[in-house]
Every structure is written in structure tokens, then in C-alpha cells.
Amino acid sequence: MHHGIDILAIGVHPDDIELSCSGTLLRHIDLGYSVGLLDLTRGELGSRGTDQTRASEAARATELMGARFRTNVGIPDGLFDINAENKLKVVRMIRKFRPRIVLANAITDRHPDHGRAATLVSDACYLSGLLKIETAINGQKQDHWRPDQVYHYIQDRHISPDFVVNIDKYMEKKMALIRCFETQFYKPGDEGPVTPISTQSFMEFIKAKARFYGRHINAEFGEGFTKASYIGVRDLFDLL
């Protein structure tokens, strides 16, 4: 018996999830699936805002989305390695929440943390299923658990998706979730440092990217995902 979360969305920075796969999460929450959120770092190296403001913004976005929970692993932003210590931190979270599906960062991207986090999470999902790797939380030994699937959302740079999810009904709410992170994005009168995501045109880029992916599945808006291995299909009509 499962007794875990259906989908665990993981982002290396607070706002990665909202920017890249929140429309898909909203769709699946509407379908009755349980969704949890996990941030690997606090985004403390970001040019705008602080780790405290980002934590409060993340909490606001979580409530608006309707996710079951959001937690933070506390790995150092920007300076983390793909090592045994960090893999085991993620393994503990995988075993705690027992997701059927994990959504993780893009396999390669402009920000070097994204690709490293993709590898870290993918490795941890595999290792979490090994009986002989022992972990515990608060002294309580954990059972092994391996998610059924790990999918990588697409972020800043274009990657040809292996599949696209229709988010027509959820695009406006996705934009509202992104705007919860108000310190990170453009706001009239804001005098903060200019970053690649704080320009006035960035929100239009997000919509244009969603339109691009949606067009290829005869939808207005879509979110693309990749997978390291083949995707199995029970029924050809699942692909419609």
C-alpha cells in the first residue's frame, strides 16, 4: 500500500517549481492527486530579496496552489556538490514522503544549480530504493522507497520535451503563483538590481514559452518535460 504523496515537485531554488511546472501541478490537484513541494536551498545567493523574504513568498505560493506541504532541505545555495551527504539528505525526503512521481529541475540550463540539482535528485531517487542504504529521521529508521517515475521540467533554456502537459485552464493561476515571489520579478518603481528574470519582458517570455509548447499539442498553453529513459504507454489513446 502506498500511503505517500502522489507527486513531489522538487526545485533547487524557491520559485523554480512555480516558474516551470506549477500549471501541471494545479491540473493534477484538480484531478484529485496529492502534491507536495520540496526546495533544496533557500535561494540565499539570489541578487534580489533574502532567504527570509523568499521563505514567506514560498509559503504564500504553496497556500495559493493548494499543495499539501512545502519543506526545505537547507542545502547551501550555489555551492553544493553532488556528494554522498547531499544525496542522503534528499534520500531521506524521498523516503519520508514516498512520492509516486518526482518532478525535478531541468537536466541542463543557464543556472548551473539547475543541472546539478537534476542529477542530485535523480541519483537520490534511485538510491532511495536500495535496501542496504540505511537512513533515519529523528532516530526513526526509514523504509526504502523508489518513485515510479522521475520527470524533469524545462526552465530557462529550450530543451525538446518528451511530453507536454496542457495547462490552458491554469495559465492565469500559474502567473499568480509566480507573482507571489514579488522580490524576484519586475515591479513598477522597484530599484533593485536587474537580473535575467526581473526585466519587464520576463513574464511575457514565460507566457510565450507556454504558448510554444502548447501549440505543438493543439493547446493554447503547455509545460514541457523530459525523461532520462523511455516512457511506457498502456494505451495509444492516452497519447491523445
By secondary-structure content and strand pairing, the structural class works out as alpha/beta
β content, as a range? 15-25%
Tell me the radius of gyration.
17 Å
Please, what is the average pLDDT? 95
Largest sheet: 7 strands, mixed
**Helix residue percentage:** 25-40%
Written description of the protein model:
The protein is an alpha/beta fold and 240 residues long. 35% of the residues lie in helices and 15% in strands. It contains 6 helices and 9 strands; from the N terminus they run E-H-E-H-E-H-E-H-E-E-E-E-H-H-E. It has a 7-stranded mixed β-sheet, with helices on both faces. Strands 5-6 form a two-stranded antiparallel sheet. Strand 5 and strand 6 form a beta hairpin.
How is the topology of this model organized?
Blueprint: E1 7-11, H1 16-30, E2 35-39, H2 51-65, E3 69-72, H3 84-97, E4 101-104, H4 112-127, E5 136-137, E6 140-141, E7 149-153, E8 163-166, H5 171-179, H6 202-215, E9 222-226
Parallel strand pairs: 1-2, 1-4, 2-3, 4-7
Antiparallel strand pairs: 5-6, 7-9, 8-9
Helix pairs in contact: 1-5, 2-5, 3-4
Give structural attributes.
single chain, 240 residues, alpha/beta, seven-stranded mixed sheet, 15% strand
